[in-house]
Design a protein that fits this description.
This is Carboxylic ester hydrolase. This protein is α/β, with parallel strands linked by helices and 537 residues long. The protein is built from 16 helices and 16 strands. The strands form 3 sheets. The chain has an 11-stranded mixed beta sheet, sandwiched between helices. A 3-stranded mixed beta sheet has the order 3-4-7, with no helix packed on it. Strands 1-2 form a two-stranded antiparallel ribbon.
């Protein structure tokens, strides 16, 4: 999986409200009679009703805004449904509850309510005349964990740079991504589309321009962005996309259904809507955890995802997601959408730390990884020949990082160009000084740098305490690039093309140069990242 270690976790709880209570799913929401808004309590009128937010550091902030009805009861495992309207003024000062999710690696287990499908808005000025670019963040977490209320996703710094920033929640794990008989596939992705439709219909009153929407996300969030680029239901809902550390794992329906059957069997039910609906939502993540813990026993059936245990991912079902992102983009599905895509240099070191093998990878572990993950029947040999001076641990890190994030991200840029679109490529090569400096430019390092939260939120531990002036400047540079791209499609360096392969390297100093991972690129150049199959029945 590609979630944060335990010390990245934060448990958050929605703040209580006073005044008259109105029921929304299982969550109490205070709704008051309308009154004139104050400077410190800005109000906006959305399609569903009036919202009252707050002011923070000169920004108007609205939290816990429902963009769809709670997906429970008759709506369990269904496509998201539009939120019902309300009368009076609904306070929007507390984050909504996180969706049910795995407790592995310390993810939040707050279950205070079922109004999981909410979003949050930071804006310099909630005025329809402002017309600022809009950035919509999709959190990562292996499609099994994720929560927009994490402090690392506080968007104050980004919005302060001149954008309206939206962060959102979506269904995870079995609720959002399991292939279930009688349910639409990719419900988590459909939730994201519903949030983007809400943005289209409502963001103008927050000061945003609905014609300048950029989706951005990291890890599973980056994979979600890639999927949205390939989804007909998402067409026209955003103009630009930033995909950070895109995972290469998308499932065939057969593989996803087999995993769902294993999860349902662990719960003692059938993998159907009626069977799984008998299990309370809070209990479902435990089944995913159980499968996660013993995926190696399914290696002959599930293949590569048992090496870096990945029980959930978008499903290439032929409907919600008609094709993999690489195939869809190469066919021109997103040629009118600007793409900014990239990865970190040392993507896998964080996972080696989580797995307890950092600094002590064995020859046998390296051989297993090479034979399972390297492309082509002679991939292991080709890796060793391509990197003759590499140690076993270096090869282990390279093949894992290439398979899971680095080459999928690069190939997304190549596919976009092949389909007639435009792409900008980057690589984060700055070595994180935190935790003794041993993780290099690891997975997740880009999150605090993009949001500018260098001393709050658990990923800030990678930055070091206190943040250095170098880190502050690099973060400011990345934020300028992301917001400039959202505003007018140019992050500040030349577009990527198959002849020059220019990329922005974020480092000290940063530079524009030919993509530095040329050896890995050549090893993977003929790989297509197809939907992962079920290997045996």
């Amino acid at each position: 999986m590609w979630a944060a270690p335990k010390w990245f976790a934060r448990r958050s709880r929605a703040l209580g409200c006073s005044a008259k209570q109105e029921r929304r799913g299982n969550r109490n929401v205070a709704v008051t009679a309308s009154s004139k808004p104050s400077e410190s309590e800005p109000e906006v009128r959305t399609a569903a009703g009036v919202l009252r937010g707050g002011r923070e550091a000169g920004l108007a902030v609205f939290r816990g805004i429902p963009f769809a009805e709670p997906p429970v009861g008759a709506l369990r495992f269904a496509a998201p449904q539009p939120v019902r309207s309300w009368e009076g003024v609904r306070p929007a000062v507390a984050y909504g509850p996180p969706p049910p999710q795995s407790s592995l690696l310390g993810a939040s287990q707050d279950t205070d309510g079922d109004d999981w499908l909410t979003l949050n808005v930071w804006t310099p000025e909630p005025d329809p005349a402002t017309g600022l670019p809009v950035m919509v963040w999709i959190p990562g977490g292996g499609y099994a964990m994720g929560n927009s209320s994490l402090p690392e996703y506080d968007a104050g710094h980004l919005a302060g740079s001149g954008a309206v920033v939206v962060t959102l929640n979506y269904r995870l794990g079995i609720e959002g991504f399991a292939q279930i008989d009688g349910a639409p596939a990719n419900r988590g992705l459909l939730d994201q589309v519903a949030a983007l439709r809400w943005v289209r219909d409502n963001i103008r009153v927050f000061g945003g321009d609905p014609d300048r929407v950029t989706v951005f996300g990291q890890s599973a969030g980056g994979g979600s962005v890639a999927a949205l680029l390939a989804m007909p239901r998402a067409a026209g809902l955003f103009r630009r996309a930033v995909a950070q550390s895109v995972p290469g794992t998308y499932f065939s329906p057969e593989l996803a259904a087999d995993i769902a059957a294993a999860c349902a069997a662990d719960l003692g039910v059938r993998p159907t809507v009626s069977g799984l609906s008998a299990v309370p939502p809070a209990r479902l993540p435990a089944a995913g955890e159980a499968i996660f813990a013993k995926t190696v026993q399914w290696r002959e059936r599930w293949g590569q995802i048992t090496h870096r245990p990945i029980p959930f991912a978008p499903v290439v079902d032929g409907d919600v997601l008609p094709a993999t992102p690489w195939q869809a983009l190469a066919d021109g599905a997103a040629r009118d959408v600007g793409l900014l895509v990239g990865h970190t240099r040392d993507e896998h070191r964080l996972f080696s730390l989580i797995d307890g093998v950092l600094g002590q990878v064995t020859h046998e572990q390296t051989e297993t990884a090479l034979h399972l993950l390297a492309p082509g029947p002679d991939g292991a040999r080709r890796y060793r020949e391509a990197f003759p001076a590499a140690t076993d641990e270096e090869l282990y890190e390279l093949v894992n990082g290439d398979w899971l994030f680095r080459m999928p991200s690069l190939h997304l840029a190549d596919a976009q160009i092949a389909g007639g679109g435009r792409a900008h490529l980057y690589e984060l090569t700055w070595s994180a000084p935190g935790l003794g400096g041993g993780l290099g430019a690891c997975h997740g390092l880009d999150v605090p740098l993009v949001f500018g939260n260098l001393s709050s939120g658990q990923p800030a531990v990678l930055i070091g305490d206190p943040p250095s002036p170098v880190a502050e400047e690099l973060s400011a540079q990345i934020r300028r690039a992301w917001t400039a791209f959202a505003a007018h499609g140019d992050p500040g360096w030349p577009p990527y093309d198959p002849d020059h392969r220019l990329a922005q390297l974020f480092d000290t100093p940063s530079m524009v140069t030919a993509y530095p991972e040329e050896t890995s690129r050549l090893l993977w150049q003929d790989h297509t990242f197809p939907a992962l199959p079920l290997l045996a029945r």
